[in-house]
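WARN retry 2 of 3 for item q-0093 after timeout on previous attempt; input resubmitted unchanged.
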Amino acid sequence: MGTIHRLGWLLTDAVLLTLAAWFSAALVAQEFPLAMGPKQIWPLVAAGVVYCAAAALLGVYRRLWQYAGLRDAQALLLACLAGGAALLAVPAPLPYTVRALFWLTATAGLCGLRLGVRVIYARAGARRPAGADDGRPTDARGARSARTRRILIIGAGDAGTEVLRELQRHPELGIAAVGFLDDDPAKHGREAYGVPVLGPTEAVGRAVRELGVSEVLIAIPSAPAEALRRIWSQASAQGVPVRILPRLGDLDRSQRLVEQIRSVQLTDLLGRPEVQIDQVAVSRYLTGRTVLVTGAGGSIGSELCRQVAAFGPSRLILFGHGEHSLHQIMLELQSHYPGLALTVAVGDVQDQAAVERVFRRHRPAVVFHAAAHKHVPLMEQNPSEAVKNNVLGTYHVALAAQRHGASHFVLISTDKAVRPTSVMGATKRAAEAITAALAACGPCRMVAVRFGNVLGSRGSVVPVFQQQIAAGGPITVTHPEVTRYFMTIPEAARLVLQAGAMGRSGERFVLDMGEPVRIVDLARTLARIIAPEREIPIIFTGLRAGEKLHEELFDADEVVTPTAHPRIRRAAAELPAGFDLAKALADLMLRADRGEVSVESILAALGEGTRGDDGLHGVDDQPVGATRVAH
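OK item q-0093 returned
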């Protein structure tokens, strides 16, 4: 394909040169070149041949003209000058006015065509920094100082070439691009800003070895996870670090691309597709309205605040009891959205009076309830606190939303609420029941959104593994076959916003989590990312109280149906017959005060039988030969 494109440009130039000859002769000599004798035509032919030869030698036909810079223009002008010199040197009975006009017309046509390609491409949406490309560090084949980092850029598209231009304008960074790899065959053998496109991305390992690459940069913001894993694996096998540009949805348009380059993270390799939401539908219920987020300092709560802020609410209320985390997200939002009206309300959802004060004062129209105790082992040890926070706290916030005229209430739930075997899971199941019961008590549209583990959230398995790897190991995994569903924090937050715009009050939505991930595989991948040069041991500790071997997303009695969004499904289930919310809450709070909370007692209060996962939890599942250590 690269050869075909080069031949295409060569033929295009030949046509332009012929038209230039025709035009100049006709204009000056009032004759068409075809009517002229060979002795008169010969200088024009010679000039065209010399130009094409010079253009080929100077690499004019290898260049990607949609990314043309100063050096590309210089090469083209040198080829035109070579053709002009030949035009003057060939003796023939051809007026010099014809020769001069031919050279000017040909140069204008050859340069204008390539400039047109660049302008059209820019107008089609390519983002180009302003200013001339007036300097380059030495490229792949030039001599560099020993301190220069030689990088291989994966992706010769908009992002990759823009990063290259930024690096070339800032040689003080000490980074030289040695080449591109790109899976588009049309780009192979060509150049962008003087840097060659060496071949497809599958050649990463060979390119790293042959070119002395010290770092690989993946500059394909929309690259699928499978491709990222392949590139990362080949580069890691050569002992070379891999860095990456954020995904398109996470790029900060106010910053230069080179400032946003970061190390490859586990979330990149696990592979979650870019989430697209209905911006119009979400904007319709967020823009210009007062929005309250409980648990605003937490992982999900803070990300919800970031994404809500982007839709321009009239006021955003951050509610939570962690003073430091609230302060951090407040400073971040003030920096990125200086015009946003922010209110930070320090309080506890267990305190009904505090909840009522916030609702009475600000009358939020939209409520995202993310406040919850989420750690399964800790809640097994503190079951009463789990009930007070996850059950009673949900009731206080949901009831206040109905009382004070909110239009939307969205509960953040978990897959652990399905056939719960832990106190935490049982309390979230109760929170779903509360949301469904109160949905019938007023005009507020109340829905629950259920999803699994979130990668990188505070206290989740990934930060724990990172600390263990940094300490040299061992990595502790509960069971060799344990699996969990995972999604990224931004992905979860986007889908929560989408779910808030969907359905009828009382409905329950479940986010598509993809395929479950084996935790031991997660640990091994993370170890290779953080410490590729070391062998980090993994030991198995046995499932802890309340934990399942495999989580589930739907209950047996739930009717699962698709929604308008491909990543969100509806799980419809009726409340247990005769369910009395007031009685259930009174029963649960009495048990919490007495310290008599259990999974069974919570489910009994909800009018449900004891659930479970057929004994797939607890110390009886300790794998044979595993080493037990304190977790």
